[in-house]
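debug: dumping io for the single-chain case to check the tokenizer round-trip. Nothing else runs in this session.
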Amino acid sequence: VDRRGSNNYEQRTAAQHYLVSLEQADNLFELELRKNQGNRGDLFKAGYKNRFDDQTAPSAKWWNGTNSGMKIYNMSNVSDTMSFSIGDTNSIKRYQVTISTSDHGTVSPTGAIQVVAGQSLRLVIKPDSGYQIDEIKINGSTTTVKDTITLSNINSNQTVEVQFALKAALLCLSPSEGDLYYVGDTMYISWQLRGITVQGIELSFSTNNGKTFTSITDAVSSGENSRLWITADVESDSCRLRIADRDGSPSVLSDIFSIRRKPQISVNDQPMTFTIAKGQTVTNTLYVKNDGTGDLAISATTQKQIRRVLINEISMGVTTQDADAIEIWNSGTDIDISGWKVSWDDNKGTSGSYTFKDGTILKSGSTFTLYDLENYKSNSSDYMGINVVWRTNDFLELSVLITDRNGNGVDFVKSNGSLTSPPEEIDWKGDGIELCSAFVYRKNFIDTDSSIDWGCTQNGTLKEHNNSQQNNVPTPFLVLSPLSQSINRNSTGNYAINIDASKLESGTYYDTILLYHNDPLKPSPQKIPCQITVHEPSSVKYNRLAAPETKNGSASAAQLSVVPNPVNAGQSINIWYSPAGNERYGELAIFNNIGKCQYHQKVTFSISNSSVRNPIHFSWLPDKIIKGSETYLIRMNVTCKDGSKAVYSTLAGRK
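debug: decoded output
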């Protein structure tokens, strides 16, 4: 206590310092620097730091460096009630206990320890993994081996020697915890003998966590330490191996691993094109087949939808009791974020990450908040797993990143001073955001990957939308359903591709369908580029076969005919176009009833087939996969010799 100080002063100088200082035994000032809220190194205790005076570190000197004369010593071990002595230490008799160890273990405390006469010293002994305490000598005499020893009523200098030795054991080195194998994979099994001999090794396999076993190999000689095994045709997430001496003992079990049958995704990943009238909503079907022997798990979304999951708000508590938090917001449609990760990197030693559990669906327009306090758990929030130390007035440098289940960047934000770089998928522009208040928030749905997207406020809106940011959020024009599904082996599943042009202007739009899956031999996600062309409702005139208008007046009417009409399933459609006599180029396109182009063919008219009106023949076989009746728009776009344009169209049906 220094009455000339003030607890408003944090400079820790002779002129400006605390009125009351809390001394920490490790002398790191981590409480003052807000690096943590206290740890084991802060405690004065016997066997660690049991003195506090002008000569120790930390010292009892005044802030100006002069001696205070304070002397506290002979501190006891940590307990509910502790004892210590105050006053002159010159008359206190001390003895030295010297502790030494071999490699492969630790003794705490160690080295040369000064102990007040008549006091005790407790030693904790811990061998490294795979090792054991081999011998303990006190003053040269061997004593009982145990992991703690206490030297009582010390009245002379003493020595303690601890030796560690390799533990005799049969160890399984592989497979490891959580390994995943597929039926027919080659597994590398390895083991190690430590200080023991065996007659030979027998390997056996369990699918029920070791309740029952089946032998998997012939006897292995005692000199071998590995074997290859073709995994069995089973499915289990509770598999274990048993490695045993031929006589049954010793034996050891492997960690738990999984064997599954291998799925195989089959999907047409060629680019898809759609044509749709402005204001319309149509649905197409994407077929996905599983040609493998295991269940195919698929989660579907689009590239634009993924980028509509945004970091929305960051809270930096005013005090250590206030919750720090990260909020994310889904400005698009429902999305499966299983396996996605939110990571944060700060300069306060509290960096970390949070991974979303399997089956986590982030609903359209909803938020999810991560707090650094456990009592904030709910359906729309969870505990970050660590108590972070974020303060706006504490030179905080912070970055936050969202990644999908494959580690690809989804959204990123950083503060001024942060040296964290975004992943290659995100092009962050310019400086970081200013952490100018207790909350920083996203202003609206527009994400430019720059600081202009962000603002500051003293009153955050965690678990709510930020002001009017829901206003004018664009409706997604390409949505898939269902979000996820499991397709049995040798079966076909389908996704509905819903295209909504109700809010779109005429033009061309692009997105990419993403299919996340568990086929180990195919890249995930599987990507299917999509192009959506939106036209004015009146730009295509059905069943109109008028003659084209040219610079020289009307030409003779061309003819576009379809035989047969309607066509039976599995039957080809024959299309005949009889020229008007003045065509130079033509382009035939066939669209299904949701506007997807099914057939496309260009033609150049020669003198022989234009001026004398010789018919041109096209033949097209509709897709056999599509079931039920369907109507096709058949359209011929014509460029005439004088540069004028004409469109001929008709409809064809399929039973």
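debug: round-trip ok. Residues 303-306 form the longest helix (4 residues).
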